[in-house]
């Protein structure tokens, strides 16, 4: 770790060489350190080892801009609030599991700035809730299209099956259908009774679902 003011003073040979070497170390090490360089320049890089973030000085030379995470592939360059599915049961660096948990507004300030209390206000002052992604399918927000009308952004939706009817063209006596008689008009019951749709060889479950694979839903902070 090395930082330098990039001002090489007039001095004797050995001192001059040492000063130049320190300046070069600061350059190749991106001015790494736990605190910002005492002297900064526009577009200068600073590897903030305290926060674990690579930063760059802005053009006005009055603030640092976050570039990405140190020690993380691609600097973790994904915007806060971005959702990804991870092929591992633990969240990668820079991400949190989407488990509806309450997390710190200060620690995860960038994420809080993006999603706020959309998915829950936590304790109402110091925490906020993450979205719930466990065992859920995701659906694009309707946003005025009219397919999923009236849907609030970020809201959960219970399972449902669209209203429909089936056509049975035979009359059955007593037996498997319990004496149910149907007309040829779909959904018209002549003799009120109960029809059990279970099939011995069918894919029966407690929910209606498509084929799927279980992955870990994560959100960038």
From TrEMBL:
InterPro entries: Phage_tail_collar_dom, Phage_tail_collar_dom_sf. Pfam families: Collar. It comes from the Bacteria. Residues 81-137 form the Phage tail collar domain. This is Phage tail protein. The lineage of its organism: Bacteria, Pseudomonadati, Pseudomonadota, Betaproteobacteria, Burkholderiales.
